[in-house]
Fold these 2 entries.
Entry 1:
Amino acid sequence: METKQFKAESKKLLEMMINSIYTHKEIFLRELISNASDAIDKLYFKSLTDDGVGMNKDDFEILINVDKDSRTITITDNGIGMTRDELENNLGTIAKSGSLDFKSNNNLGEDVDIIGQFGVGFYSAFMVADLVTVRSKAYGSESAYEWQSEGVEGYTIDECDKAKAGTEIVLHIKEDTEEEKYSEYLEQYRLQSIIRKYSDYIRFPVKMDVEHERKKEGTEDEYEKFIERETINSMIPIWKKNKSELKDEDYNNFYKEKFFDYSEPLKHVHVKTEGTATYNALLYVPAKAPYDYYTREFEKGLQLYSNGVLIMDKCADLLPDYFSFVKGLVDSEDLSLNISREMLQHDRQLKLIAKSIEKTIKNELTKMLKNEREKYEEFYKAFGLQLKAGVYSSYGMNKDVLVDLLMFWSSNEEKLVTLDEYVSRMREDQKFIYYASGESIQRIKNLPQTEMVKEKGYEILYLTEGVDEFAIKMLMNYKDKQFKSVSAGDLDIDTPEEKEEIKAKEEENKEMFTFMKESLGDKVKEVRLTQRLKSHPFCLTSDGDLSLEMEKVLNAMPTDNKVKAEKVLEINPEHGIFSKLQDLYANDKDKLKKYTQLLYTQSLLIEGISIENPVEFSNMVCELMVE
Ligand code: ADP
């Protein structure tokens, strides 16, 4: 018989499975049971509208059999089954599109991560088995097929006998090694406990022929063995159970299995509501952003069930974009089973549920921020960007929902603080909420512009992400306090006397500044004296709405519409450079021109803006050095 090759990616994944050092090999059973349950779901769904299926809900089952002598575990389901083509396509290639990216994702070097992130499903059988046989008959089909593989070498497909529709998977369990006792998976009690741990909620019975002992009738102390087919799982979905029955561990295990995450979630919420919207929900806040979270590929959504039956895997309408990181499910009796995607969008009930879920998430996050600060900071590291983007998007429509969930790094506290915390400790004479933008905390710390604001003892919020300043601009103010960039033209930090003094000095040197501005052409809007520097000689700021940082962010986007901030070169009159400039203006205008160029270019470097001609800049510096 011809041996077929696996597709390249599948082969790679298989190799990893076979040589896996993953410590939770037991999950192979959960993967196979979950596939079986999905297959039954499909046939059950069909049976609701098609009498031809001829089965009732109670007829469906998943059977697990162990045979120690032949070292096999057999998982049988009476679900929808697979045709020859389906066997080929589903088991010969990786089904999950996400898995294909794993090679390019460099933080997924370890197999632990791949298994955790993608839930590689069927292939996990190869973690414990050295021969896998799948016999399947698709519903409505006459013939059955057998797929068989020992691993990377490939697989065979051949016709076989099978009476009823469904799938039977036989795993031949590997021999024990020094490190790994595979034989444990041939113990009934071990399999039972794995089933209870991971597959308890599966809606169809997972049955095993369990061996028991009983007293032999008519004897005093003689025992005999007998076998009874038992249902191992409780079949009650975890979200329908009472909260008092459930431990954190139950919630977390369910999460990890269901949503393919290997890390514990930060938070779970179990909602049972009746009233305008009647539903059960299980919501989770993950600890880490999925690898594709901040990409277009990421699909938000909650699983949607109608009275225990899955009707949609990712119902996007249940989550606003700014809470798209939430994983979980909603089960409502108010939704019809046969509702289509299009109808769902307009469903009044669904809208009510979505509103209520949004409120729940907001409350939970608020509680976490208040009571579990460290946890919240962990959350914020992973998803704060999404909240800030949420403030900015839709023209700020949702800013009120989100504003109190925001945090920024504080110059005074050296940690993340909320806006409420900032405002509550503002000094009496302080008019604004000050902020500074830059690539990193360290870079902002060194920004000359922060000097005077700090000198006056005001706290500064450090904005390090591209979206930050856009979000701040959208907020405009918080509790009637206006936000103000330390680089803003109208910093308004000086006393009236100081203002007068600067104005007078500026008037005196007006011609020099005009000369300097002209030598820079349209690169700057103005050259003037500064109000915000103490020891630093000069800095670059901007007038108007567009800041230097925003210019950087916008111009980094792949469009041709480049924007330009109104840049201002500010000189510190208290620094020696100022008298030097005055001197040059009086005696050597050509040199002043060069110095002005140099100052401007340096100010760009300080701001982290790339300079157009670094060679020219360095030559000018060298020229000065040899003078
Ligand atoms: P996933 O279940 O995540 O899609 P798997 O590798 O576990 O990935 O399975 C691949 C596909 O094979 C499934 O999507 C399903 O179409 C099919 N399949 C697996 N097991 C069964 C089964 N017991 N009955 C019917 N189809 C199955």
Entry 2:
Amino acid sequence: MKKGIFITLEGIDACGKSTQIELLKKTYPEFVYVREPGGTILGEKIRNLILKDKDITMCGKAELMLFMASRVELYEKVIKPHLEKGDIVIADRYYDSTLAYQGSARGVMEMDDILSLNRQMLEGLKPDLTIYLKISPKLAQCRRDADEADKMEMEGLSFQEKVAQGYDYIASKEPERFLVLDAREPIDVVHKNIAKAILKLQCRQKDNLEKLNAGNSENN
Ligand code: TYD
């Protein structure tokens, strides 16, 4: 049973996600941090294949399946055990990335089909909160260091625009799960807003666990 809290961070390339994750690590060193693709031995190898190895090209469906394989491995080996223990897990990307990149931008599969495939593979694990750092693709492009671009970042502006449209669409479908933050705001303002949302979630989780425990002792 899931006792912990699962939080994901999403956004287009160079939206400022990595900076926010570094700040979260400083503020909450007790949380568990994972990234996608990666986070396991298999996942890191897949990361290299998809993003770094310039000798390997692959069709969109193969790319989608590799992202999924990395995610399933991470779920089974890291995310699920920590959530069962009651930990707070923060994931740098999760299935919304596949919906936005492979679904919306690449058009490999319908978003609904990608979602249902993910839910089947991940035992339905949906984030309790998804923080979407929203920024215009043009501004994000200016922030990026062109020399260090990985294969996905080399896809260009129109690709990032389709990714952004994908995220806007998913966020509008699930407003209760998504916290959309303006990534142009100062770094510390964005961090404070994330911290506020985490606190709210922790209080809600505490209430739920107390109610559950009270119910269990009434039944005994
Ligand atoms: P990464 O270097 O981690 O970039 P970022 O800091 O922006 O997260 O690279 C991950 C890249 O992989 C990023 O361009 C998004 C892409 N991606 C997908 O296309 N589909 C996916 O399912 C995931 C998890 C990531």
